[in-house]
Specification:
Blueprint lengths: L1 H10 L1 H21 L12 E7 L5 H16 L5 E9 L2 E8 L5 H13 L12 E4 L4 E10 L3 H17 L6 E4 L5 E6 L1 H6 L4 H10 L3 E8 L4 E7 L5 H4 L3 E4 L5 E3 H4 E6 L7 E3 L2 E10 L5 H18 L5 E7 L1 H29 L2 H24 L6 H32 L3
Antiparallel strand pairs: 1-3, 1-4, 2-3, 5-14, 5-15, 6-14, 7-12, 8-9, 10-11, 13-14
Length: 417
């Protein structure tokens, strides 16, 4: 049967040529669409549930949120283990799945179960349910800048936001830049003078610093959403908050009785590089992102910002995870070219130039076919698959020479040289 299969393609050479053309087109398409990673893709079979609870202690988070979620999740199909953490202002539940169950179905069941709880504390925010993602580092760098943290923060945020806007990078982790604070200080004399308490001032700030949804209005032509956006993020925006308003029109603003300052925390964590303030970056990638593409985008962005803020900030690259991967890609390319030339030269000199061309052509066609199969099976180009490709090139070269010599010997026997 195998011989008849080969004989069929020998008699119908046009079909063979079309198949080779399709393999080449599919392989070239796959080569430009395959993800390049350091390690093979790894799916994490964990589902995470985050519930922010601002102002609550860890015990309040445990009793008001975490325990209720755990009780509601018990008995759901597909759940292997539940691990929870309660801390100030935050509740966290990690659900480990049974690998035999469909993750989309289990996640939907968990979402329905978590959202069905109607006894969450009023100040708790809506639970966030998501599947864990395996994140890997593509490049680690630092930005060294002026001692003025506000200036450094502005440049760091501008650099980070522009990287995220490329659409190719979705996760950037930074360290060395503390979270700024807005300090509101009131003197005891002002509290006595205006007959106020600290709690009343705090409540006035909370009531005036909210984004509120007030429903919607349905007309004949459109649906009008009613929203109030009063969330304030700058110290100067808080100055106009009304703390007291009397019937006669007298108003006491927050700036009248308080000193409002935007500052950095006194016990802040910070990093330095060569005596200058420094902010570190880890640019990450997930299972669907290309590490080499991310590396190239980051390097171009660094070059752009070094020119834009010349003399003000410096960039230092500590780790490029793509170095080893790029070395293996270069090794694969070199071995492929060397193998191709070797087949052309050896068979061309000792056998036949036409035969050497067609045998050598089998090497790139085989590799392109392999790339197409990798794309179909959602396998990335990584250190392990590249090692296999390098091994396969040696096999292709050896087989090509042996098959070419066998074909030539058959031609000689039949007198067709």
């Amino acid at each position: 049967m195998f011989n008849s299969f080969i004989n069929y393609f020998i008699r119908h050479s046009a079909i063979t040529n079309w198949i080779m053309l399709v393999i080449c087109i599919g392989g070239i398409f796959a080569l430009f669409n395959l993800n390049k990673r350091l390690d093979p893709k790894l799916e994490i079979e964990n589902i995470e549930i985050d519930v922010p609870y601002p102002g609550a202690s860890s015990i309040e988070v445990e009793e008001g949120i975490v325990t209720k979620i755990e009780e509601n999740l018990r008995g759901l199909e597909g759940i292997d283990k539940i691990v929870s953490t309660s801390q100030d202002n935050w509740g966290y539940v990690s659900v480990r799945m049974n690998p035999d169950y469909d993750i989309d179905k289990v996640m939907q069941n968990i979402k329905n179960s978590v959202n069905s709880i109607n006894s969450y504390p009023t100040d708790a925010e809506k639970p966030i349910v998501y599947q864990s993602t395996m994140w890997n580092r593509a490049i680690m760098l630092s930005i060294n800048g002026p001692d003025d943290l506000f200036t450094l923060k502005r440049i760091v945020e501008e650099f980070r936001d522009e990287l995220l806007r490329t659409g190719k990078i979705s996760n950037i982790r930074t360290w060395g830049l503390p979270v700024r604070e807005i300090s509101i200080e009131v003197s005891p004399d002002d509290l006595i003078r205006y007959k106020l308490t600290v709690n009343e001032i705090a409540q006035a700030i909370r009531n005036s610093n909210l984004n509120i949804s007030s429903g919607s209005v349905l007309t004949d032509q459109e649906l009008i959403l009613i929203r109030s956006y009063n969330k304030k993020y700058q110290a100067k925006d808080l100055e106009g908050i009304e703390v007291v308003s009397s019937i006669n029109g007298e108003k006491i603003l927050l700036s009248d009785i308080c000193t409002i300052v935007e500052q950095w925390p006194e016990n802040r964590f910070f990093s330095e590089y060569n005596g200058r303030r420094s902010v570190g970056f880890n640019v990450m990638y997930n299972n669907v992102e290309d590490v080499i593409e991310i590396d190239e985008i980051t390097l171009k962005m660094i070059e752009k910002y070094e020119q834009k803020y010349a003399g003000l900030v410096n960039f230092n690259i500590f780790i490029r995870e793509t170095d080893e991967l790029q070395e293996r890609i270069d090794l694969l390319s070199q071995n492929g070219i060397i193998g191709l030339v070797m087949v052309l030269v050896v068979l061309g000199i000792f056998l036949n130039s036409r035969l050497s061309f067609w045998v050598a052509l089998g090497i790139p066609i085989s590799l392109l076919g392999m790339f197409f199969m990798l794309w179909l099976t959602d396998i990335s180009i990584n250190q392990f698959s590249l090692f296999g490709m390098i091994m396969v090139i040696g096999i292709l070269v050896d087989d090509g020479i042996i098959i070419g010599e066998s074909i030539y010997s058959h031609w000689e026997k039949e007198g067709k040289t």
